[in-house]
Amino acid sequence: MDKEQTKFFKKCGALIRRLRLLKNLTLEDMQDYGFSAQHFQKVESGQKAINFYTVFRIAKAFGLNLSKLVLKLEKEL
C-alpha cells in the first residue's frame, strides 16, 4: 500500500474498531459474522485493505445500514 492508502485504511479501521466496541463486540464475536479474530484485528489496525463486500459484512455485523456505515467512513476522511 502507498501512504495515501495506508492513511485511508488506518482511519477506516479506527472507526470500525470504535463501532465494534460501541456494540460491545469482541474480536472473537466477529467470528459469528465470518471473520477470524486475527483478520478483523488487521482490518482495525489498517494493515488489511478491505473491499466493498467486507464493508457490507461489517455493516451487517454491526446492525447498520450499509449507507450509514459508508457515510460514517466518509466523515472520518
Brief digest:
The chain has 77 residues and is mainly alpha-helical. It is built from four helices and no strands. It is globular, with a radius of gyration of 11 Å.
Overview of this protein structure:
This protein is 65% helix and 0% strand. It is built from 4 helices and no strands. α1 packs across α2 and α3 (52-61) packs across α4. The protein starts with a helix and ends with a helix. The relative contact order is 0.18. The mean pLDDT is 93.
What string, H for helix and E for strand, traces the elements in order?
HHHH
Distance linking N and C termini: 17 Å
Low-confidence stretches: none
Mean pLDDT rating: 93
**Radius of gyration based on Cα positions:** 11 Å
The tally of helices reads 4
Main sheet summary: none
Main attributes of the structure:
globular, mainly alpha, 77 residues, single chain, 4 helices, 65% helix, 0% strand
Strand-helix topology:
Layout: H1 3-22, H2 37-45, H3 52-61, H4 66-76
